[in-house]
Every structure is written in C-alpha cells, then in structure tokens.
Design goal:
Blueprint: H1 20-47, E1 49-52, E2 67-71, H2 74-77, E3 85-88, E4 99-105, E5 110-114, E6 117-120, E7 123-124, E8 144-145, E9 150-154, E10 172-173, E11 177-185, E12 191-193
Antiparallel strand pairs: 1-2, 2-11, 3-4, 3-11, 4-9, 5-6, 5-8, 6-7, 9-10, 11-12
C-alpha cells in the first residue's frame, strides 16, 4: 500500500536551492543604481545650477541669453582667481538676478583705473579677454584696497557694464559668490567651456 500524504506541515520537505547567479546579478544591478543616483545627486547639488546671462556686459565672451552651467563646488575648496568668471548676487540680494562678471582683483589687492587702464598692485592688469579702454573709472578713479573677503569684478564689455565700479554693486564679498561660470549650453554653435 502506498503512503498517503497527510495534510498539515511537513518539516522534512526539501528546500529549494537559491540561484546564486541571479542573486549576484541583482546585487550588481542594485550597486550600479546606487552609484548612478549618487553621481546624479552630486552633479545636481554641486554643479547643476544653470542660469542665463542678462545684458551685454560680458560680450564678446558671453552674450545676452546665453545659458551657462555654474560650478558651485569649486569655491568651497579654493578661492576665485584673477580672470575667473563668477556668478554672484549683488550685496547678497536674493531677489536680484544672477550677475556674471570677471574677477580682476582679489583680497588684499590694491587697484585703480587711470587713463582707461586697470592697475592692480601698481601694474597693468593682464587681461585674458579682448577689452576696450575704460571710459568711466567710477569708484576706481581713486585707489581701492580690497578687504580680506572682497573681490573686484568688471564686465568684459567695460563701457557697458554695471560692476564693482559702481556703488550699487561695489566690492563682492565671497559669501555672495554662487560659483564659477564654467560651461555654455546655449546651442550647438555656442557649446563648450568658458574662458
């Protein structure tokens, strides 16, 4: 007579084998997903700010309406240098649009604009952009000494720029600097690193 199976629990039942290759593939997929999410978060948080250039103050380097990416991380580990193009809020005013200008003097520098030329620490500033003679020296018609966390910025279009020469902008404190303008993404023709 054959054995009949009784209802109820059977602890002697054979366990199914776990397919190791499926587990390894799932773990690899989960790890790759985690790395991708972390890279995306890092990119968006530190570098993901996109803004548009307002006005012609940075022409011919940047033009009105150009879309640029801002590196918000770089100035957490280093300081802005002369000729860096920075993005900032004037006087920290969060209701203002972002300003985009070129750093021409850094903390501790002495500067003055005389006869259309910018002098930093007694020497003519070495421009990385093609700029014209400055017609209006503004506040820089007299010698300015920058404080410990102050930067002096000018637009590349020197005679059509609202910048540190004027009292409503003045010297830029480091805490008001959002980051460094580093990549233009306007169109396929205007696509690439900013210098």
């Amino acid at each position: 007579m054959g054995r009949r199976r009784k209802g109820g629990l059977h602890f002697g039942k054979r366990k199914k084998k776990i397919n190791i290759t499926v587990v390894e593939a799932a773990a690899a997929w989960a790890f790759e997903l985690f790395i991708t999410v972390m890279l995306a978060f890092t990119f968006v948080y530190f570098i993901g700010l996109r803004t548009s250039v307002v006005g012609q103050s940075m022409a011919n380097t940047l033009n009105e309406g150009d879309n640029i990416l801002v590196n918000r991380f770089v100035y957490r580990v280093s300081d802005p240098k002369p000729n860096d193009i920075i993005v900032f809020l004037p006087n920290g005013n969060e209701k203002s649009h972002y300003y985009v200008k070129r750093v021409v003097a850094v903390p501790g520098d002495t500067l003055e604009i005389t006869k259309g030329a910018l002098y930093v620490n007694g020497e003519v500033f070495q421009e990385e952009a093609d700029v014209t003679s400055i017609e209006d020296a503004g506040l820089a018609s007299e010698e300015i000494v920058l404080g410990a966390d102050e930067y002096f910025v000018l637009g590349d279009n020197r005679n059509n720029s609202e910048d540190s020469r004027y009292a409503n902008i003045g010297n830029i404190k480091k805490e008001y600097i959002i980051g460094k303008a580093w990549f233009r993404v306007t169109s396929l023709n205007d696509f690439g690193f900013i210098r």
